[in-house]
Amino acid sequence: MSADPLVPETRVLAVASHVVYGYVGNKMATLVMQSLGCDVSPLNTVHFSNHAGYRQLKGTRATADEITALYEGLCQSHLTDFDVMLSGYTPSAAAVEAVGAIGQDLQRKAEKNPGSFFWVLDPVMGDLGRLYVNDDVVPAYKKTIKHADLILPNQFEAEVLSGIKITSLSTLAEAITVIHATYNVPHVIITSVQLSKLPESSSAAAAQSPNNLTVIGSTTKSDGSPRLFRVDVPALDCFFSGTGDMFAALTVARLREAVFAAGPQLRTTKSWVSPDDVKAADLPLAQTTVKVLASMHSVLEKTMEARNAELVATSGQVNEQLDAEERQKQEHLRHTKAAEVRLVRNVQYLRNPVVEFKVQEWRTEDLPAQLR
Amino acid sequence: MSADPLVPETRVLAVASHVVYGYVGNKMATLVMQSLGCDVSPLNTVHFSNHAGYRQLKGTRATADEITALYEGLCQSHLTDFDVMLSGYTPSAAAVEAVGAIGQDLQRKAEKNPGSFFWVLDPVMGDLGRLYVNDDVVPAYKKTIKHADLILPNQFEAEVLSGIKITSLSTLAEAITVIHATYNVPHVIITSVQLSKLPESSSAAAAQSPNNLTVIGSTTKSDGSPRLFRVDVPALDCFFSGTGDMFAALTVARLREAVFAAGPQLRTTKSWVSPDDVKAADLPLAQTTVKVLASMHSVLEKTMEARNAELVATSGQVNEQLDAEERQKQEHLRHTKAAEVRLVRNVQYLRNPVVEFKVQEWRTEDLPAQLR
Predict the structure, then answer these.
(1) Number of domains in chain B
(2) What is the per-residue pLDDT for A168?
(3) Do residues B95 and B141 lie in contact, with contact meaning Cβ atoms separated by under 8 Å?
(4) pTM recorded for the entire structure
(5) Do B66 and A49 touch (CB under 8 A)?
(6) Which residue among A9, A54, A344 sits closest to B38, beta carbon to beta carbon?
(7) CA distance A9 to chain B (A)
């Protein structure tokens, strides 16, 4: 018998999108957290047929009032005993504010017991240089994340939140420092930084790791300064939807596990901020990131194998008689479907990660001058 | 290493309710089927804060048009490669018809490959002698179930569908026979018949099994006559919500497994109807029912233990100063929450059932005259 692969009992309020087919948003996050033993309450901000990567979808968006009413429904029946809230895609500025109000209400309910409630916020606004939400969602997030314990922006979202264009490793460090300071948010992970694509890091870093993804995180010290750590993982040559949601969900489960493993002191500390003598690479957040990325790497590797097999099996399925534009659309649908993350039959990699990545403390002053 | 506990790969379109907190409808069914390895696409007919057992809830119902639009969204992106549809609670007659149209469209898409699509329909209309849907939902179901492959009425719903009051074992057999014939539905399971409560079976059956629940099922022969089987399980002294949904979801996974185990012939037969020489107790449906009930029994036993512990831990939580009515309401909420099925940390009982119940062919002519 192997050790119990489940994390400590954890009740999670998960606020994000729902899709009938495929794995993004709550559809991804719920199963990931449940597989690790969390009791998940999914409050769905949209109900779509499929994710936006297909470039067409049908369904409905919840209004801010509908989101608030669902939460009031929980309150009136005393169903708010959540240990963690994970909030993700929210379709409008008013809805972001409604979710923000839920987070703050849960914090108020828990304020007599520091550490008994923790809010992980994924500020879903855009990617790869462009916003995919309305402009007014940005200020709504800027207000809301001041209350979160951990945020998980991607590189572009970190730029939006910090106001700093990330063009080098030192501007990346600067962006994290600014985010900690501006929003008073104790934990940050910037998911998926492609260092090799940073123009100023063209020499050493790029040469060392042409196909690496880098994840950078930090937990503040008591003076507000960052404790930066870094994990490099091999990038897979395929675009998958829902990986941000998988990252966030695994982080919820593994961070709670790491904080419990650190002993009763930390988990009764507000926002689970480790004492100043804990080094960056030893932070629960750093240990969490390593496990999360290991699980993700295996699931995505299995997904890529299955995708390749499906693309072979379905090649020639698109009617050659169609005009070029329609054929391209059908090919896009076929490729997008084939790349849906294969989660259900690979949950063992969530429970028992098989690869091991290394986390290192990350000090910009150690870098050669041209990379800083 | 134990054998792989997952069932054959199965894509399921699951149409039922969603609740943020607790386990009923799709919230129950999705996790149950996923735990056994099914790839589930949940199309949610309602989005409620909690189940109706709390006697108060907030949230929204999907209209028939919204349900239809979600399905059209799947169709336009070719995301309808489902092996099974499981349809449950649907909030209006128009919505039942919309779900019926989806089932029939999926059947049309599969008609060149008999057995490649199977529709399990839980005609959720009421329980314990009363309807909890609008009156017009009944005729909508009566029209719809003519297209289903397997239906899962409880005792009351079987009475509504057959027009026969089930007051004895022979009227129960008669009801199933009538349902097969009237609706041309090849598989029926009547979940939770309390034989000891049937007035005419007060002597022998009741004496043998004062606290048993009986599940009766049947797959037709080629002449339309029933092949009846029966499984008795010890009843647990507690009311749980969502058990019908758990039963339905486990049945989807285990029936597909049993049909695959029966060999390629059966699974390429329309509606998976076994040849006439297969005895009632050897039917895939009968073997399925045994496994399903074994899993359920363990999960509900664990739930009852956890419920009892929670009730002890929260006793005295309700303010004694409240007036009698309000105190009663608060006590009801406390008891309802405590009885939520403990699914997440008990999925091993879904995967590897540990108890073994017996299935027997059930012939009314074998019974003493007073029980027929």
Answers:
(1) 1
(2) 83
(3) no
(4) 0.95
(5) no
(6) A344
(7) 9
